[in-house]
Amino acid sequence: QVQLVESGGGLVQPGGSLRLSCIASGVAFSNYAMSWYRQRPGKERELVAEITNTGSNTIYADSVKGRFTISRDNYKNMVYLRMDSLKPDDTAVYYCRGRRWWQIEPDYWGQGTQVTVSS
After folding, report:
1. Using CA atoms, how far apart are residues 59 and 79, in angstroms rounded to an integer?
2. Does the bond joining 14 to the residue before it have cis omega, within 30 degrees of 0?
3. Segment 25-45 mean pLDDT
């Protein structure tokens, strides 16, 4: 059974940092492209960042380029999202998603972790 579990969310002040983590189980993790999505209040879920199965390539939403960094550890079945210079507009529920690198579906999602940026 595939399971993705996020952690690391919380309340942070503007300009602060957080690191989100997602651990995967029930998958051959090194075959999976992993990504982070977020859903801001009143908005649709959007892609934040994606990393290839080997970690050799990454993509970012324009809104987070230069502030967020996605990384992975294939030995630990973990993917991370380092978030720096956080803004109130980054407030959202952040989700981890995984898919086999050669397929769009099936894909698997975590339950989400809340990030709130507020003073």
Report:
1. 14
2. no
3. 96
